[in-house]
């Protein structure tokens, strides 16, 4: 064996004379191949006046001194061209093109490092065991390579999470995606640990729901005259504004009246008020009101559910605006409720109207001053239960056991409502 197996450097023979010739030849080859860089790639004819040590990767169909040297490296050394045959995996820098090339065994090609199964990538920062791809930059651009672009976030099963989490100081504040199921949700958090769901899109129907309720922009319509004096109740706010009408409803003795209303997000119940227009003719008569949950269907009717609050009693033999206040506010969750009101004596009348139900129905005042009254598009039913003296005078039961009778009364397309809950945002 006269040459090394990889770079084909000549070996010194035993007792060889003129050893320096062989050593210098080997050193020349090492000088040519170490940190290999070629002047250009693809030339087919030698330059007229090459400099000592110039190197080229020869193109197909070469002529003159390079004939038959296709894809080889031509080295100008000692006034002559020397052919260097590349071995698999040799790398060289193409000076003219400014790129790194590698010999793949049959052709030269651009060197591309493998990006498969990397431990992680940190751009402007370091990756960690959880965040295998970490980017610290003012912005990150994901551009299309055709007509569009998709960012895919996959999870193993429907009970896992696939989401985008938005943080402040490394603490979660908002999250969107499929978390724990395949419905699409948007959630928010004030502390990074407890999240409130604002929007949910059902995976099967596409129906959109608002588990936390809706909060439309709050403002007062400038065209509404708020000069009704004692006929007007509440602050100038769509969720607490209530209007008493100039008409009245007779309150049968010992009868409880129930009226449904809807709460679309958690609120704090503060109490209620009733406008008793005409006092009871029974001395010592009492007015009691409170709130129940709306129960389950019962035939054509609905049962009254569990008691939420008993506001207590106020004298019913005096005509004035009766205001009930809870000692401690009580939180109502989203759902349907019914107000309950009854008078133990005869001859009492209450003004009736309707407050603006949060996010459900639009009611608006008609006219102004003492002629003002609320107006809506249709009448609404209310429920009543007779023979309720014990409940009026003794206290509302935890559960209303009897099924109230349904009736409907309407005048001028407005809705009967005689108890007005007072509430505020949670």
Q: Descriptors for this entry?
A:
426 residues, 3 domains, six-stranded antiparallel sheet, 29 strands
Task: Explain what this protein looks like in three dimensions.
- The protein is mainly β.
- It folds into three domains: 35-110, no CATH class; 157-212, no CATH class; 229-425.
- Helices cover 5% and strands 42% of the residues.
- The chain contains two helices and 29 strands.
- The protein has helices at 19-33, 389-394, and strands at 37-38, 41-43, 55-58, 73-77, 80-84, 91-94, 99-103, 108-110, 121-123, 133-135, 161-168, 171-179, 184-189, 195-201, 208-209, 232-233, 242-251, 255-263, 267-278, 286-298, 301-315, 321-332, 335-343, 348-355, 364-366, 373-375, 381-385, 405-408, 420-425.
- Strands 16, 17, 19, 22, 24 and 29 form a six-stranded antiparallel sheet that branches.
- A hairpin with a 2-residue loop joins strand 11 (161-168) and strand 12 (171-179).
Write the layout of secondary structure elements.
Blueprint: H1 19-33, E1 37-38, E2 41-43, E3 55-58, E4 73-77, E5 80-84, E6 91-94, E7 99-103, E8 108-110, E9 121-123, E10 133-135, E11 161-168, E12 171-179, E13 184-189, E14 195-201, E15 208-209, E16 232-233, E17 242-251, E18 255-263, E19 267-278, E20 286-298, E21 301-315, E22 321-332, E23 335-343, E24 348-355, E25 364-366, E26 373-375, E27 381-385, H2 389-394, E28 405-408, E29 420-425
Parallel strand pairs: 1-6, 2-3, 9-10
Antiparallel strand pairs: 3-4, 4-5, 6-7, 7-8, 11-12, 12-13, 13-14, 14-15, 16-17, 17-24, 18-23, 18-27, 19-22, 19-24, 19-29, 20-21, 20-23, 25-26, 27-28
